[in-house]
From TrEMBL:
It comes from Clostridium oryzae. GO terms for molecular function: DNA-binding transcription factor activity; sequence-specific DNA binding. SUPFAM superfamilies: Homeodomain-like, Regulatory protein AraC. This is HTH-type transcriptional activator RhaS. Keywords: DNA-binding, Transcription, Transcription regulation. Pfam families: AraC_binding, HTH_18.
Length: 282
């Protein structure tokens, strides 16, 4: 007998490796790492930025991170905010035609926003935490049952909820143009210091690169990449003028590893090289 997710119900016996909740203080930063099993992280409160396979994702309360084996991830808290998370790890399961212990395709975003199953997930998380705190006879069996329930709800979220879109896709009827552009500019303003590209921006926005470029150009008169360059140069100018950073330090602070390339962009935009700011600031 098979269920809707390509699993043999009679032999469905995933191994729950761990479940725990943890609070992370403001200014927390975790090293980028990966696991050889599938893990999920539910944001119970707060917000932070996760780097997942070198792509920054700004996450908040209600978001679910679904991380296949081998997916590199790490986080840092932002805006002085702490974060409260629930973590779980699973192995020994097979979904559809995916590799063992994988739960999503590569073309699905690893960060899933609030869904219609959010209450079910939260209740399951709370039941797991409550049972762990009891530590009574039979708790291990109950926790295993709750872990299986959690995994099935998660599969429902991923494969049955209409709001979960493949990368490059979005339900245009639910978003107006200005909302999308505002989301793009906010993402760039927050992450300009990272290694951003049109592809990375599109993956985070769940939109195709071509659509992002067209919409952004029509609404602002500029391309997303030109907007990114202007933000970086403006920030760098402030760093050079008020923070007295060296050209190399300022370039690195705004996302440029090559100081020479940065200097060329700066001169083209402002009409003078960044070295002139040393004298203008005196």
């Amino acid at each position: 007998m098979c269920c809707n997710f390509g699993m043999d119900v009679d032999n469905f016996n995933p191994k729950i490796l761990y479940t725990f909740e943890k609070r992370f203080e403001p200014s927390h930063k975790s090293k980028v790492h990966s696991h050889d099993f599938m893990s999920i992280i539910y944001i119970m409160s707060g917000n932070c930025t996760y780097m997942i396979n070198n792509i920054p994702y700004k996450v908040k309360k209600g978001d679910i991170l679904v991380l296949n084996p081998g997916v590199c991830h790490g986080k840092y808290t932002i805006d002085g905010s702490g974060i409260h998370e629930f973590h779980a790890g699973f192995e020994n399961f097979k979904v559809n035609d995916l590799p063992n212990n994988n739960i999503i395709n590569d073309n699905i975003t690893p960060v899933i926003p609030y869904t219609n199953y959010d209450d079910d997930l939260l209740q399951c998380f709370n039941d797991i935490i409550l049972e762990q705190n009891k530590n009574e006879s039979g708790s291990e069996l109950i926790l295993k049952t709750l872990g299986m329930k959690l995994l099935v709800i998660l599969l429902r979220v991923i494969y049955q909820n209409n709001s979960i879109k493949e990368k490059g896709c979005i339900n245009f009827e639910t978003y107006d143009r200005s909302t999308i552009v505002n989301a793009i500019t906010e993402f760039i303003n927050t992450n300009y210091m990272h290694d951003l590209s049109l592809e990375i921006i599109s993956q985070n926005m769940y939109l195709s690169p071509a659509y992002i470029s067209k919409l952004f150009k029509e609404e602002t008169g500029d391309s997303p990449i030109n907007y990114l360059i202007k933000i970086r140069l403006s920030k760098a100018k402030d760093f050079l003028t008020y923070n007295r950073l060296t050209i190399k330090e300022a370039a690195h602070a705004v996302g440029y590893d090559d100081a020479y390339h940065f200097s060329k962009l700066f001169k083209k935009h402002y009409g003078y090289p960044p070295s002139c700011l040393k004298y203008k600031a005196v």
